[in-house]
Every structure is written in structure tokens, then in C-alpha cells.
Design brief:
Radius of gyration: 22 Å
Oligomer: single chain
CATH topology of the largest domain: Jelly Rolls
Order of helices and strands: EEEEEEEEEEEEEHHHHHHHHH
Helix content: 25-40%
Structural class: alpha+beta
Number of helices: 9
Largest sheet: 7 strands, antiparallel
Amino acid sequence: MMTSTPSVSPGRVNSPDGGTDRAEVDFRDLEQIRPPVGIKSWQSSDDRFLHPTVQIAPVDSVKRLGTGRPGWFVENVHAPIGRRVELQFQGPVHLLAMYNEGGRRDGETSIDGFAPSKIRNVAKKLTFVPAGCGYREWLETAASTRLTFLYLDPTVLRNDGGDDYAARIHFEDSGVWETATKLKSAIENGQAKRTLYLSALSSVLAIELSRCYDNAARDTALNRGGLACWQKRAVVGYIEEHLGEQICLSTLAQLARLSQHHFCRAFKQSFGVPPHHYHVQRRIEQAKLLLADRSISITDIGFTLGYSQTSSFSVAFRKNTGWTPSEYRREFK
């Protein structure tokens, strides 16, 4: 759970043994973020100032708490439901964003040189921003949303393969997630003698990141029976943007540049269900997020997600969850 503490200026604070290896800061009331411990800000070749931590606007729209030591820094960010938040980052360190929980009614995430992502269900997704790359995101929260930002100096997250890390937006990888969670916990524990452990975890994380990049690069060649990565991104992105609308199979097939017959077969191979079932499942997942907000009526939620009658929404919700919308909402008391 996110806990708030009196706001202080970021900087070194004495550790229990009298050293200065750890900093703990509450960023909520700061208008400008200063460099966390051990991470220096710098200027790019075109004289732009590159901020060492994610800029968030409005400043009071979230609660954020950070702690770290030289080379490693972690921030926990909480955005309540119904907030519009803008995030921006470009710095001398690698950034790994972990979307622990929540979702967005609307929003977009982009990294320089890559197609933006507009998916709404961001829970358990990861975004990796290599040092020096520009990252921007805006979102309207559909539920209480919690993120973790891991800032890793390139000297501690080394790629022994020699190639630069590639940016990735909203990807899923259990290995990366598990290792990053361990690294987060180790940074937050803050014992002065845990540098070797942090270094070991960082090495594992570097391997996991390289592995998932290699898997993604091979995806098109290996997934001959399913959709290629670019096809999945295009189709899923379109479905996410049109959850409350009827979606024509021909439109999805055109996005994937396939015949309808070939597209249906490839889609089921990739996602395990036909396109229509996937669309319904995503509607129901969005409905779960909206049901957490008691200011929205169940009827309005159904209309928002494309159901013309409350009864049809209730039938679809119960078929997929085993609960009626009213029963599910009561669980939030």
C-alpha cells in the first residue's frame, strides 16, 4: 500500500550506519524533480535538459514515493480513479515502468521512433525506455492505478551482447516481471551491504530483457500459424479503441492484410479464441474496472460498452464471470 510522508527535497539522507547510500523522498509537492541519489542529470546534444525522473502533471494528481542508492532508484506512483495524468521522461538512465494494477478509459503511450500504444487494460504490462529515449504517456484512469518506475544506470544494467537495448511498450514477460519485482524489493530494503545482490539481480534482469527481445524478434518466423507481432498490435489496438462499438471482421482482416478466413484461423491460433469472443472478453474486463466506480450506473456501463439493453449486458457479464454486474459491484464494499 502506498503510504504518504511529509514532503522533503530529494537528496542524500543518512543511512542507519551513518553513510549516505540511500534516499527516501515523497515527490507529491515538488514542482520540479531533482536527480535521485547516484543518478545525475545531463544535457543532450541539442541542449535539452534530460530529467532524471518521470515528470508528472498535474503535480498533485498522484502520490509518488521514491527511494534508492547510487545506480538504482525506484518510485511507486498511485493515481486515483478519474484522474487525467500526463507523464514524460528522457534521461541518462534506463527506465522500466511496471503497471501493477489499474486501467485507463483513454490514453496513449509513446516512445521516440515507435508506434504509440492505446490499450486500456495496462495491468501487469511493462514498458522499457532505454537511456536517452523520449517517453510520453497520458491517461484517464478508469480505476485506482499503481505504477512502479525502476531507474537503472547503464553501468548496472549492462548488455554484454554489445547491442543497445531496444524500447518496448506494454509488453508482458513473466521473467522480466519477477526479476524486476525482486530488484524493487531489494532497493526498497536499502541495506548498505546489498550492492552485490542488487548487481546480481540487475545482471539477471539484463539477461531477461535480452531474452524477451530475442523472442520478440523471432516471433514472426516461429509463429507461422498465427499472427505476426505487428498484426497483433494493429488488431488489438483497434479492438481496444472500439470496445463499445460493433467491429466488422472484414475491418480486422484488412488491418492484418489477410483474407477473412485466414485471419480468423491465425487470430485463434494467437489468442486461443475467435475475434468476436476476444472482443467480448475485453468488454467484460473493462466493465470490471468501471463497476469499481459507484458513480457510474450499471446501465451506463452497459451502454458505454455497446450493450443496448441492461439485460443483455448482465447476461454477457454473468456468462463470462459467473456473477451479475450487481453482485460483482457489491464485492467492492
